[in-house]
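User: Could you write out the 3D structure of this protein bound to NAP? I've included everything you need below.
Assistant: Certainly. Input first, then the structure.
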Amino acid sequence: MIASYSYATGARFAPLPKRTLCLRGKNDGMKAWQISPFANLKLSQVDSQPLLPRQVRLAVKAVSLNYRDHLMMQGLYNPKQPLPLVPCSDASAEIVEIGSAVQRWKIGDRVCPIFSQAWIAGPPTRERISATLGGPLPGMLQQQRILDEDGMVAIPNYLDWEEAATLPCAALTAWNALAGLAPGSKVVVQGTGGVSLFALQLAKASGLEVAITSSSDEKLERALSLGADYLVNYRLRPDWSKAIRHWCKEGVDCVVEVGGGTLEQSLRCLRPGGQISMIGILAGSSAPLNVLPILMQQLRVQGVLVGNRDDFEAMNRLLALHQLRPVLDQRIPFEQAPQAWLRLASGQHFGKVVVTGFW
Ligand SMILES: NC(=O)c1ccc[n+]([C@@H]2O[C@H](COP(=O)([O-])OP(=O)(O)OC[C@H]3O[C@@H](n4cnc5c(N)ncnc54)[C@H](OP(=O)(O)O)[C@@H]3O)[C@@H](O)[C@H]2O)c1
């Protein structure tokens, strides 16, 4: 063990001196942050493993946090998750070694891992959506990670490591939440976290009109500068669906639902035939609900679980076309990774919190 940090109490234990690590060596070992037990992050020295023929070795460059990582840390995402667990799904990395049968990549390529390692294309199946990074599979908050060559996509050239690390879960979820919406459609985006700001940026790049809600007027001003068309402070307007219907009398085409417990209000925002893209549970995973409007107005509630590799590559083409830059909140050094959890838990962030400086 090198250092440990109690996420729950903020208590820090003195780290041992840093070691110099060789990036390209196979057996030099490396550092990995691990959840062990829940609510505690421990920096450990772990051995590197040899590659199988179709695997690649990644030198991780940056990792971004999702709300899921916060839940995982607390043991709320899957209380039965075996520990220790290296957390985090979203990363950018350089390929530093390839197995003997690898065909898709060469050393030096810049890649992002895909969230569901077995979901390459097509609709979700239990098998495809169960092999996810950062739980149950070991995640990316470590200096090296070995993955199957199919489990990653190329990073658009114009993005730096930290920007690219935000794409695998947050951006792709937003992309799929907006799937099928034609230019001119109206969308509601809740809050200014990672998924929501990607939804705002992707929607504007696709010619949609966007209303965004936030607990903070200051954050709403920043959303305005990203192209938002209508702003609602949900703390000052607890009946924010009325404000949305003031903006759009007929009702909007889609709500990007990260609240969960806010579903009933979100349904009130929709036009007949409109869609809830059900993504998150920031306001709780249950809510009293009158289901009548769903049938009377032919509303759809569509679950979204990130997406597959094909989706990721399609999204990257649009990002590159518009040269969209992910909104970064803070860049936190690898050695101080637990600070990233504290930042996310504070709710003060605007966009993505990124851990960087792995080497
Ligand atoms: N289904 C999937 O595939 C998928 C993928 C990614 C994320 N998620 C889920 O989506 C949710 C958002 O994830 P994230 O990573 O984007 O989180 P995040 O970056 O931590 O975003 C949190 C932000 O959401 C806003 N918020 C909090 N409570 C809210 C409420 N009651 N109503 C409206 N907005 C609220 C706040 O924005 P303001 O400060 O502006 O108020 C807060 O800063 C989480 O529940 C996460 O688990 C699901």
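The radius of gyration is 21 Å.
User: Perfect, thank you.
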